[in-house]
Amino acid sequence: MLKTNEDRLVELSMQCKPGPPRIRPGWKVGHEGKPFILPSIGGITLNVQVGDLAFGLAGDHIEPGVSCSANAEKPFEFPNNSLQLLSCIGNEAIIVSGDVKGKKGTVTGHHGGSEHVMVDFSKKVLRQLTYDDKIIIRTRGQGLQLIDYPDIKLFNLDPGLLKKMKIKKIKGKTLKVPVTTVVPAQCMGSGLGSAHVAAGDYDVMTSDPESVKEYKLDRLRFGDFVALLDHDNSYGRAFVRGAVSIGVVVHSDCLLAGHGPGISTLMTCHVPLIEPVIDPDANIANLLKIGTKRKKA
Fold this sequence. Notes:
Layout: E1 12-18, E2 28-29, E3 35-36, E4 66-69, H1 80-86, E5 92-95, E6 104-111, E7 116-120, H2 123-128, E8 135-139, E9 153-154, H3 159-163, E10 168-170, E11 174-179, E12 181-183, E13 202-203, H4 209-214, E14 225-232, E15 238-251, E16 262-269, E17 274-278, H5 284-288
Parallel strand pairs: 11-17, 12-14
Antiparallel strand pairs: 1-4, 1-8, 2-3, 4-7, 5-6, 5-8, 6-7, 9-16, 10-11, 13-16, 14-15, 15-16
């Protein structure tokens, strides 16, 4: 078992509510020069959840489940910026008002630009949820450390999810981490250069059909663990040869230039101490029994 500082983590309650769908008026233009008007960020998405394919939707930057905000009118300000920084993938969420009060869900990622935290609830709960309902997220995970692997940094990761990731120790202070997909550095786009990765995401560019086919990017699902090669996320998102970062797919494929499925960072190392291992089941839906893997009542 990996030694961590879990017993030293601070757990804080953050209140939020579903953020209405946000669509700019007028046409957007995709990377092929074609205009489009499609569903996009935000909302209570009734038919898209973790475990579903992140490709092929009649939408752009679709966020699965419930897109939550602590301040939908001022997404980049307090208290929503605190919600973004403190919420971690795997955190528990509880509805505390309305017809589905008491129902529990799970944080599945956060999306930069929209400044939303995505939460998975059952489809039955989603159908009864309103934009006035309040949700409490029990934030825990920022500051999590691997005691025996100081060069590997963790972000946005609930310690309970870490324990379920089937990570294996190998010689030379290296960890084997299961992922569904390995993404080369040249495919990473929107979000590069950010000062830190404790909020938001960055995108796997899918504008080049040959790269999509070669690296099987069109098979990515919401909630998939992916390895980003030659990318160090320790102090922002940067190209560094030999570095490896591990993240989770948090939003769908996109039509805009420089965009594609969004990745929230969980692990990163500036030297190759993380060895990705292909596992088709490396998805938070499988590990946490949520989304498409949620047991029917």
